[in-house]
Amino acid sequence: MENRFPSSGSINRTRAALAVLPFLALGLADVVLLLAWGVDPLWGFAILPPILFVSVLAWIAFSTGFVGEHRT
Question: Where would I find the DUF8142 domain in this sequence (predicted)?
Answer without folding.
Answer: 7-69
